[in-house]
Prior knowledge:
Helix content: 55-70%
Largest sheet: none
Strand content: under 5%
Amino acid sequence: MTPNLVYVIVVGVLFATGVSLLLERSLTRILMGLILLGNGANLLILLGGKAGNAPIVGTTAEDEMADPLPQIMILTAIVITLGMTAFLLALAYRSWALNGHDEVQDDVEDRRIARR
Length: 116
């Protein structure tokens, strides 16, 4: 199966916007970047799968079966992305409740090293 050019461009855009949002200082933007990066990874895994019939033994010949491994990896990635999203959402809410904003602060040690 050759990948469709539209899928490749969509994966590239999702990865580019996800990484650029991950580098922001707001936890809300970091959260959106993580979600976009997770969706881009899912589409990238989907591009690697072989198209074919349902992988059920006895109903389809072995050479015509689709590979179920990319689908399993995508389901696992969805669960991991959901867990990370819930954690970052709780972190952003806690930061908003304590400080009134959700920006990530610089560490004192990082500031000292940056002054050198």
